[in-house]
Design brief:
- By secondary structure, the chain is an alpha+beta fold.
- The chain has two domains: 169 residues, GAF domain (Beta-Lactamase), CATH 3.30.450.40; 134 residues, Histidine kinase-like ATPase, C-terminal domain (Heat Shock Protein 90).
- 50% of the residues lie in helices and 18% in strands.
- The chain has ten helices and ten strands.
- The longest helix has 77 residues.
Length: 400
């Protein structure tokens, strides 16, 4: 939360306070708004000579949704009821009816409600309902334990105006909170889909290795035996070619099995796995690949696997689209973050990928980075080339 301003009732009118508070609330980070609203309520209390205030939010069916409440030193805050509760008091608010008690709190609350809200000893109470976007949003309440039992008309007007400012601020926070929840759900879904994808890859890799690779080995032996039994040179040559094709297919199948489930990552570690993937592309496409890796603390398996998949996806894109002759891969570590960068000297890309979603492969790279609270930035300089820039914060749980 931004630094708390200091308000002095002696040299600041209630109108000036409202403007100052409104501007200050706009400057606060969204996640800090509940605490900021409570500070605003506490700052406003002396201006209306109250000892307790609450901002109350109702659901569309007139039930209690939530509240922010403050009290002056020496007094207790309102005891909040359970979410979803219904009462005659709340029904009055939902109808937009001003609720005023001057001297006798039993005029507006029954005994149960007084006990529930811990309102014993209050000599004056007001609840001012107001609308947001044309609907009753809730209300702002103020209570006095000492002082005048009467509420002036200008005080009621000021309380309503102040409440509307706070309600708009709270709506901003509520919208942000819902967005955060949806983002968390999407992140969980993305993580779940990637986990399932890895499980399927692992199963397919095992099937290729345990079943099809063995069968391919048997075919290779049979093809070799066949060539040895033939006498005619042309037939013998054809058998040799068949044997070579089967061997090539077996090697391709082994490479596919390794790419689906990189056992090298678990056996020899991240650096070796990354360099192996670089050598694979260098061999296939005759691309010069240079690597620069800082010493790293041991990363957990999930982060290691996702860094490997990011490199794998990026190098596949280079092989398919970049027409590159060289690639530079760096992995740098500091106390604050892990910086993973892949640069090629290919033809680049015309898309503004920082503003557009880009290809499915780039979306996958971005999602993998976001799983670890990181970021993925894609850029293509005017003179060609393409840069994948990954930043992962150095959070302790990402390391073993």
């Amino acid at each position: 939360m931004r630094e708390l301003p200091k308000f002095n009732k002696a040299n600041l009118s209630v109108e000036q306070l409202t403007i100052e508070i409104s501007n200050w609330l706009l400057e606060n980070d969204t996640e800090d708004l509940p605490e900021a609203i409570e500070f605003a309520l506490a700052s406003f209390m002396p201006y209306i000579a109250s000892q307790r205030m609450s901002l109350v939010r109702l659901t569309e069916d007139s039930r209690f949704e939530g509240a922010l409440t403050v009290a002056a030193p020496g007094y207790n805050r309102v005891s909040l009821p359970a979410q979803g509760i219904y009462s005659p008091y709340l029904e009055q608010i939902s109808k937009g009816e001003l609720i005023i008690a001057e001297g006798n709190i039993d005029q507006i609350l029954n005994t149960d409600e007084v006990l529930l809200a811990e309102m014993q000893g209050i000599i004056a109470h007001i609840m001012v309902p107001f609308r947001v976007r044309g609907k009753i949003w809730g209300g702002i309440a103020a209570s006095r334990y000492v002082g005048s039992i009467h509420w002036r008309e200008d005080t009621i007007h000021r309380v309503r105006s102040f409440g509307q400012i706070l309600a708009s601020t709270y709506e901003r926070y509520a919208y942000w909170e819902k967005l955060q929840q949806k983002n968390q759900q999407l992140e969980l879904l993305s993580r779940h889909l990637m986990d399932n994808q890895e499980n399927e890859r692992r199963m397919l890799s095992r099937e290729l290795h345990d079943n099809f690779s063995q069968r391919m080995a048997l075919l290779t032996i049979k093809a070799s035996s066949l060539s040895n039994t033939l006498i005619v040179d042309s037939e013998k040559q054809s058998a040799h070619e068949l044997h070579d094709e089967i061997q090539g297919l077996a090697k391709d199948m082994q490479a596919l099995s390794r790419s689906l489930h990189p056992a090298i990552l678990e056996d020899l570690g991240l650096f070796t796995a990354l360099k192996s993937e670089c050598r694979r592309l260098s061999t296939i496409k005759d691309i010069d690949i240079q690597t620069l890796f800082d010493p790293l603390p041991a990363l957990n398996k999930e982060l290691s696997l996702n860094l490997y998949r990011i490199l794998q996806e990026t190098l596949n894109n280079v092989a398919k689209h970049a027409q590159a002759s060289a690639v530079f891969v760096s992995l740098q570590y500091s106390d604050t973050d892990l910086h993973f960068q892949i640069i090629d000297d290919g033809i680049g890309c015309d898309l503004n990928l920082n503003q557009n979603n880009g290809s499915i492969g780039l979306i996958s790279i971005r999602e993998r980075a976001q799983l670890f609270n990181g970021s993925a930035v894609f850029s293509s300089p005017e003179d060609g080339g393409f840069i994948v820039d990954i930043m992962i914060p150095a959070i302790k749980e990402y390391y073993e």
